[in-house]
Amino acid sequence: MVDNEAVRLVAVSFAALDFWREDDHAAAFHALLKSCRKASSPDAVCAAAIALGDGVDRVTARAFFETHYAPHAVHGAGQQGTVTGYYEPEVRGSRERGGAFDAPVYGRPHDLVMLTPDTERARFNDRITGVRETAEGQSPYYTREEIDAGVLSGRGLELLYLDDPVELFYMQVQGSGLVRLRDGSAVRLTYAAKNGHPYTSIGKLLIERGAIAPNAMSMAAVKAWLHADLERGRALLAENKSYVFFRELTEEEGRDGPLGAEGVALTLGRSLAVDASYHRLGLPVFVTVPDLAVEGAPFRRLMIAQDVGSAIRGPERGDLFWGTGEEAGAIAGSTHHIARFLVLLPKR
Q: What residue ranges do the domains of the chain occupy?
């Protein structure tokens, strides 16, 4: 991983930001407002944003960002900036186990002890960060393979049961899920914790083994490979020892969408998952992705850092939130592009 000490944020002017003026700053402002209202002690910038409120137009929003922030380029990263995509899967579930609904979704176990800050899990992804106390002392928490084999069964941790273990896996990768229940109702699940084992990309493993060509790699391609032979698929999934536990949101909590690590509802096309060891949650980041076309033009948007992820490592590494459901998943699964980050820091 890049040494944090070697990375510098160098001040630039707003005039140096290509297509800055063309963006919809009001959309970014409303995403920022969610972060500001969530803050227990809003800083001066957030206080100003809250004072402006919800009725801000594009011109006023751009003036707000230019007044209160200064853009900074990332220097010394030692690697190209990259963005991928993520989304909230929409899956089928049941309160009771039975029939096709056989894949349990677990809540956080009481004996799981985390050794590092959860919002910086990408920084510590190369080591064990979750343990349990045993008679012999601390032991690494159970792996995906052990959990799938039933080591947590019967402890009252089951929140729901899904009808597809592959969809459960991808819900864990995404960190949230909208679950349609058999009675027609729906609930939202959000990330509660992980077992503390390093995250391993199964897509990278499939490429390394020649199972899927690099130019054919997508989330849909991996899902098809897993579904083609479920036993073979389970063996591959077990190689990613990381396992995510969930919490069920109340109706009020989940009303506006899935929650990010900051605890606010994510905004389609404006929420960004970052490496929180480099960038504080709540900061605006102007992201330029020349090879990603949105509405007929290259992606150039002011995003708000509102989430994290185990695979999001580095100062110019991010995940773009694309929304909920199958269509959003198709976009997220094919998003992997070189990008440039301009971080907006509050003026002193």
A: 4-84+257-346, 90-248
